[in-house]
Design a protein that fits this description.
InterPro entries: Molybdate_resp_trans_reg, WH-like_DNA-bd_sf, WH_DNA-bd_sf. This is LysR family transcriptional regulator. Helices cover 57% and strands 7% of the residues. Helix 1 crosses helix 2. The radius of gyration is 19 Å and the shape is globular. The chain is built from 5 helices and 4 strands. The longest helix has 30 residues. It has a two-stranded antiparallel ribbon.
């Protein structure tokens, strides 16, 4: 594959919190989509996830922290959910952690990327693992 078409390696952050909660890229995507759609059901449609999964994720986020991340307004016309001030701060803090981590890890990630075998097929890896376990 030509170098110009290769996707850059990146670091993702999953915060595993001491109270048993977590916050990661999926939560961030859900919050961003709720912000745009102004509803959990709208976010579930946009993300192509079940409403139940989205609602349970919002509920878990709201119970993980002392302050709610998403405020819901059942039956409200023009939107049934919005991101709270605390939710906006949580997103900003998470993105700050992502930036700092990416900057700190850049040299190491670049070295790992330089050692990649570009002919690797991840689908073949899954097939081999399935065959080996059979």
């Amino acid at each position: 594959m030509p170098k110009s078409k290769r996707q850059a390696a990146y670091v993702t952050i999953q915060l595993n919190l001491p109270n048993g909660g977590s916050f990661g890229p999926e939560d961030l995507a859900l919050i961003d989509t709720i912000r745009i759609e102004r509803s959990i059901i709208g976010a579930s449609r946009a993300l192509q996830l079940s409403y139940r999964k989205c609602w349970l994720s919002v509920d878990a986020l709201n119970r993980t922290f002392e302050s709610p991340v998403v405020a819901t307004f059942p039956g409200r016309r023009g939107g049934g959910a919005e991101i709270t001030q605390f939710g906006e701060r949580l997103v900003a803090l998470y993105r700050s952690i992502e930036r700092h981590t990416s900057n700190s890890a850049k040299k190491s990630v670049d070295e790992i990327t330089a050692s990649l075998d570009w002919s690797f097929d991840p689908k073949a890896r899954v097939s081999a693992a399935a065959r080996d376990s059979a």
